[in-house]
Design a protein that fits this description.
Order of helices and strands: EEEEHEHHEHEEEEEEEHEEHH
Strand order of the largest sheet: 1-2-3-4-5-6-7
CATH topology: Metallo-beta-lactamase, Chain A
Radius of gyration: 17 Å
Bound molecules: fe (ii) ion
Number of domains: 1
Shape: globular
Number of helices: 7
Structural class: alpha/beta
Amino acid sequence: MPNEVPSEGLTIHTLPLGPWDNFVYLLADEASKTCAVVDPAWHAPSILQEAQRLNLEITHILCTHSHFDHVNRVEKLLETLDIPVHMLRPEIEFSGYRCENLVPSSPGDTLRVGKHVDVTMMHTPGHTPGSCSYRLRDAIVTGDTLFVDGCGRCDFVGGDPEQMHQTLQGLLDKLPGDTVMYPGHDYGPTASAPLAQQRGTNPYLQHKTVADFVAHRMQGKKPNTGLSSPPDWAPADS
Ligand SMILES: [Fe+2]
């Protein structure tokens, strides 16, 4: 997958992984050759090899939320890396997620990757109560909040379509249109997209009322079902 360079000294490397079309990201500070990995899941060797291939040292793990398909290789990485794992406190409280080196974080917290790349944690609830989007310069990594031409489901345990509507409107209101959105899954026609483009093409950003959004998002779905706990199976790493 081609890499995109939102601004000087920062590179966002995209790694498609797993059976659910997840994207794992390496947010790299080119000056120090260090990076944060977002949502390490499905295959630890692929993540470690990609960092090695790019000559990057992984210094942080950033979790957008607690769902299994986003965190199922955190502990595997911690077997060889002694680095902090960031997740928003409301998500930890909601899910009971635990791992070594877990840093309960607050909305608005900023962490630095390497020497120059500041990453801010934005609370973007709706898919889960403590979902986090990571903002860095003119990019945002949105997990299961916003996809290219889609948005995260709100029918899982902890989901809230009204909150999701508020979250999405907040992102559009707060962030410049040239902000490039990097989603948690490869569900759209492109891997990433500018918010201004999404404002025009994403069907979930077109609704005039909260009620219209909720009806669309919840069509055919039952609230609070599924994904309340990790599946009782684990994929192999080889
Ligand atoms: Fe999810």
